[in-house]
Specification:
Elements lengths: L3 E5 L4 H11 L4 E8 L11 H17 L3 E6 L1 H17 L6 H20 L4 E3 L4 E6 L2 E6 L16 H5 L1 E2 L7 H10 L20 H8 L5 E4 L5 E5 L22 E6 L4 E5 L6 E11 L12 E4 L7 E9 L2 E11 L6 E6 L2 E8 L1
Helix pairs in contact: 1-6, 3-4
Length: 351
């Protein structure tokens, strides 16, 4: 039986080259683009930019002589990703919507639909390696460490990983772009996508449009009122900018006290460091929870460096993590992603 490969085409250079690379090994390759949101908010990207991404994906498929399909996931994306993003900020958390969108929408709603259409394998332009050993498989960091996206994929199940091909994992981004230029693909010089795809401009404007802000007190660690905040969802742990309060030195956000609607701050940056946290909503991409062993590291945000784990303590559905050294601004809502050297183990949401 010939594998029918569906490649997720975003309209960017990475997915374009992923499709090209797959054509060298597979006979049946089809480009598929998600139509995942409308410009129903003034702070969503312009309608013309959404249409442009779909059009660019179609142009790449035409240049490569591939069929191009569009799958409408707008309703599910609104309910499961955008509403989640808004509700998490409203309760004082700082979510990363991409880590939810990948397993729930891209490898969930989209991949389920594609399987119904007869596709046997899925592929994306993510920078991550897939290692297969016999019947088992797992993800590893990409060759291009600066572009490595394994952090964003901790929510995938072992079954989702098994059905997916990641052609770009063994290449540097510079090579991917140079190859697109050599092939004269229409997106060879197109810029990388922004961090949150459904927001244009600053996310604060988006939050103000969807959340009723309740101003309140800014307090120091002793509980003394030293100023007023504009609404807790507009702040995150470790933040320095936007604290317009007369003070002798810089102030940093320590905590969002939702119960009393207070923003707790400190003027000592060392107060932001901690060597322990709790994670929930756990998922082990590798299949099994990690054993308490040496060599396990964790990243507490996408652009942070991994730090060694000293101890893991499982409590029912939550995991207490003790680090070898303190880390700055461990933030509720962000993803804690665990590795055994380069191997992705899985992760959870920081509580």
């Amino acid at each position: 039986m010939t594998d029918r490969i569906a490649v997720a085409m975003s309209g960017g250079v990475d997915s374009a080259i992923a499709a090209y690379l797959l054509m060298k090994s597979y006979d049946e390759v089809t480009g598929v683009t998600m139509q995942h949101f409308d410009a129903t908010s003034s702070n969503y990207p312009h309608p013309e930019s959404i249409a442009e991404d779909i059009r660019d994906a179609a142009r790449v498929c035409a240049a490569l002589s591939l069929e191009h399909r569009i799958v409408d996931v707008r309703i599910e994306f609104r309910k499961k990703i955008i509403d989640y993003f808004i509700s998490e900020y409203a309760r004082g958390s700082t979510p990363n919507p991409c880590t939810l969108c990948n397993p729930v929408i891209k490898w969930g709603i989209l991949w389920d639909e594609l399987q119904d259409q007869g596709f046997s394998r899925f592929a994306t332009g993510h920078y991550v390696k897939k290692q297969e050993r016999g019947r088992s498989c797992y993800l590893k960091r990409a060759k291009d460490r600066e572009k490595d996206q394994s952090y964003m994929l901790w929510g995938l199940t072992r079954e989702q990983v098994a059905s997916t091909i990641f052609p770009n994992g063994n290449y540097k981004k510079a090579y991917i772009r140079s190859l697109a230029r050599k092939l004269d693909l229409p997106v060879h010089d197109k810029g990388d996508s922004q961090e949150i795809c459904f927001i244009k401009g600053h996310y604060e404007e988006f939050l103000r449009e969807h959340i009723t802000m309740q101003p309140g007190d800014i307090v120091d660690l002793s509980g003394k009122i030293i100023g007023k905040h504009r609404g807790l969802p507009l702040y995150t742990v470790g933040q320095r900018k936007g604290l317009h309060t007369p003070w002798k030195s810089a102030l940093y956000v320590m905590k969002l006290d939702m119960a009393d609607n207070c923003l707790v701050v400190t003027d000592n940056e060392n107060d932001l460091y901690d060597n322990k946290f709790t994670a929930g909503d756990l998922n082990w991409t590798s299949g099994d929870p990690p054993r308490p062993q040496t060599g396990i590291t964790v990243q507490v945000r996408y652009n942070s460096n991994p730090v060694a784990v000293s101890k893991l303590i499982f409590h029912d559905s939550q995991l207490e993590v003790i680090l070898d050294k303190a880390v700055r601004a461990i933030t509720p809502g962000q993803s804690a992603v665990f590795y055994d050297q380069d191997r992705l183990l899985g992760g959870g949401i920081i509580k």
